[in-house]
Amino acid sequence: MALTREQMAMRVARELEDGFYVNLGIGIPTLVANYIPDGIDVMLQSENGLLGMGRFPTEEEVDPDMINAGKQTVTARPGAAIFSSAESFAMIRGGHVDLTVLGAFEVDQNGNIASWMIPGKLIKGMGGAMDLVAGAENIICTMTHASKHGESKLLESCNLPLTGAGCINRVLTDLAYLEIKDGAFHLKERAPGVSVEEIKSLTAGKLVVPDHVPEMTFD
Questions:
Q1: Is 33 helix (H, G, I), strand (E, B) or coil?
Q2: Of 30, 38, 50, 98, which has the fewest CB atoms closer than 10 Å, so is most exposed?
Q3: pTM of the model
């Protein structure tokens, strides 16, 4: 069974370390805020100028002026700071974010990412993704393994315009958790109930498979 969006967020949350400053991109990455493990203290950063995002609000807590980069309402945790987007991007460009979690359309075996546009389709802009992939060294990309037409999104070479080159080192899809190194995808974990053969069939790029691939856990 493919992972749900919530399960993907739960798995990414296991990569958080105490004291991390973390930027969460639009989409699945924003859900990570709801699954921060107990005993872990992290500061979530939003490119629009909020450091210290909390979980999503209840109906009683909603403040329309407190939003993340995806225009979703959020809460602020104790110790949070609010500042201009210029200062927020200075933090990103200066390499002061310990972990970045982004979505993507395509990722290839050399760590290239395409996430900001599909030619011929209307777009609002590139957002902060180009700054994030240029300024961060520790990036996890979350995405579906294949398109709705069954075409792989893990490629030998990206077809869409690049957001960044050689910058992605880990990918979590709805089928697998993979590391990118030495010009290949290295399979580390598989979603519960998903076979290695299914992952192989939906990975167009070079895939390195160890003798044993454990199923993911979310604790």
A1: helix
A2: 38
A3: 0.90
